[in-house]
Design a protein that fits this description.
Length: 158
Amino acid sequence: MGTQFKVEGEKVRLFMQWGKGLRAQHLDMDLSCKVAYRDRTKFCSYSNLVIAGCKYSGDIILIRRIVGTAEYIELDLNTLSEDEVTYVSFTCNAFSNEALSPTLVVGWMNSKYPMKISRKGVAYEPTAVQHQVSVNQSLTKGMVFGVLDVNREKSFFN
């Protein structure tokens, strides 16, 4: 079930943006990924910023007024393949709230160009987005928004 997407490039940047249009406040949403090997799993998240093939941008717990904020995880597909990773699942969770923010957008971007983080807002480049999911109303505490099948031509499912 779901839609399959061809991966563009050797690196992919997962993103989660939230808080756009809201007043400045503590609103902690968390992006993470679970990396599945044949015999074990590992997580890349706010508590484990770097594992082989995954690098997390850092935990953001406050949103800027009107602009919002974002978190990222960059996946190196060659490293994941070399380490015999089978799947990587992408998740987002509400940490400080009972539900995901209704302004939340998650997805993945290609990483053809280096990411630039502006002091005026989030580093969200719509032209680099390959796929996104928008949360338009309060949703349960978390969700899985994609799975990367590393062995099957490096394709995503949503």
